[in-house]
Amino acid sequence: MIDADRLIAIRNERKANSRYASPQQCQQEIRAIEGIYIKEGVPFLNISEMSVEEIATRLFLSTKTVANYQTGIRQKTGLATALDMYRHAEAHKLLDGSE
Questions:
Q1: CA atoms of 49 and 22, how far apart (whole Å)
Q2: Which of 75, 36, 78, 99 is nearest to 44 (CA)?
Q3: Is residue 97 a part of any domain in this protein?
Q4: 54: in domain
Q5: Are 82 and 7 in contact (CB under 8 A)?
Q6: pLDDT(99) > 50
Q7: In the chain, how many domains are there?
Q8: Calpha distance 63→58 (Å, rounded)
Q9: Residue 77: is its pLDDT beyond 90?
């Protein structure tokens, strides 16, 4: 998981002053992703300030394993961005109040 402020900063570097980088959009997407994780019982960490090495250490995995998991998730789901995950959650009624 990523901190909303960090996501906003990253997106403002890519597309400053856009809806894509707006605090509301970023916060909404993060809530949606958290909702999916909670509903499916998937544990998650806020990795906003963590390197791949720190993530690997925290999960007792090798750095290469963490990188491979990230790649595998993207390839298997086709959900490359937080926005893609949000749209998936919305389409499958996984968001609070979307039922």
A1: 20
A2: 36
A3: no
A4: yes
A5: yes
A6: no
A7: 1
A8: 11
A9: no
Q: What is the CA radius of gyration of the chain?
A: 14
74 belongs to a structural domain? yes
- Does 30 reside within a domain? yes
- Between the alpha carbon of residue 71 and those of residues 9, 67, 99, the distances in Å are 23, 6, 31
Two structure tokens written together for 93: 């009624």
Q: What is the pLDDT of residues 15-65, one digit of tens each?
A: 999 999 999 999 999 999 888 888 888 878 877 778 888 888 888 888 888
- How much is the pTM? 0.52
Nearest to 3 by CA among 63, 45, 52: 45
Domain that holds residue 69: 4-91
pLDDT, position 21: 93
